[in-house]
């Protein structure tokens, strides 16, 4: 398994990104497909809510997904780049004081290899609706995300040489764009790479339909 770069052919699927963004992903997550397929099953388990740990079964599958993604990243990322990179998780939708606060992305980063520079430099000042549960009209804009992000100055030193912004699923790219804006302002000139476990793909609405009489 290796990384695929978000290039011009698929950039339109993630329209909040720009042509200058350097983003890579390992897998593809099928929107609206539930637990269908290995990737969807892993992502769905990864997103299990902490508040439901005691009331719903299968919590161990979340830990299993975290470990698997850590291992896949460990074998796919350039070890020399990791030696000098600072890995910065995109914060979850919930603030630290919320019962559904979830540090799964940080756990994945720390599981890649011992001794990595993993820092949750960017934090949310208030909880927001999760992108995967919010309707299209309710998802936060890049500007709203930037306004809700704050830099934890206690974690900014030493200054990063390379930054890897980590998240589980790349959708349109709003969270990455907001993180990029905040971090590039705080650390001007430092190269930034977006690293995702998977990107979202949408099913072909014409799949399975006979179009022979139309085309």
How would you describe the overall organization of this protein?
The protein is of the alpha/beta class and 215 residues long. The chain has one domain (4-201). The chain is 29% helix and 20% strand. Strands 1-2-8-7-3-4 form a 6-stranded mixed sheet, sandwiched between helices. The chain has a two-stranded antiparallel ribbon with strand order 5-6.
Q: What is the strand and helix layout of this fold?
A:
Blueprint: E1 4-5, E2 23-30, H1 37-46, H2 59-76, H3 79-84, E3 85-89, H4 104-112, E4 117-118, E5 122-124, H5 142-148, E6 149-151, E7 162-170, H6 174-186, E8 192-201
Parallel strand pairs: 2-8, 3-4, 3-7, 7-8
Antiparallel strand pairs: 1-2, 5-6
The end-to-end span amounts to 37 Å
Main β sheet profile? 6 strands, mixed
Radius of gyration: 18 Å
- Strands in their spatial order, largest beta sheet: 1-2-8-7-3-4
In the predicted model, the low-confidence regions spanning at least 5 consecutive residues are none
Tell me the overall shape. globular
- Our count of helices gives 6
Query: Mean pLDDT score, rounded?
Result: 91
The helix-and-strand class reads: alpha/beta
Helix content percent band: 25-40%
Order of helices and strands: EEHHHEHEEHEEHE
């Amino acid at each position: 398994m290796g990384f695929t770069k978000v290039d011009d052919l698929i950039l339109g699927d993630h329209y909040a990104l720009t042509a200058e963004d350097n983003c890579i992903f390992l897998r593809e997550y099928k929107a609206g497909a539930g637990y269908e397929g290995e990737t969807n099953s892993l992502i769905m388990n990864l997103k299990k809510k902490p508040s439901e740990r005691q009331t719903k079964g299968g919590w161990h599958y979340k830990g299993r997904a975290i470990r698997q993604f850590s291992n896949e990243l460990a074998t796919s990322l350039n070890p020399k780049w990791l030696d000098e990179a600072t890995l910065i998780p995109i914060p979850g939708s919930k603030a630290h004081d919320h019962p559904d606060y979830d540090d799964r992305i940080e756990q994945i980063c720390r599981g890649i290899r011992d001794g990595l520079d993993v820092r949750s430099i960017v934090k949310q000042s208030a909880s927001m609706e999760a992108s995967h549960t919010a309707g299209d009209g309710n998802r936060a804009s890049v500007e709203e995300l930037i306004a809700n992000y704050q830099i934890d100055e206690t974690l900014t030193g030493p200054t990063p040489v390379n930054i890897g912004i980590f998240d589980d699923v790349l959708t349109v790219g709003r969270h990455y764009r907001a993180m990029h804006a905040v971090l590039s302002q705080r650390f001007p000139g430092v190269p930034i790479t977006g690293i995702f476990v998977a990107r979202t793909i949408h099913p072909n609405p014409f799949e399975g339909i006979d179009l022979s009489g139309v085309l």
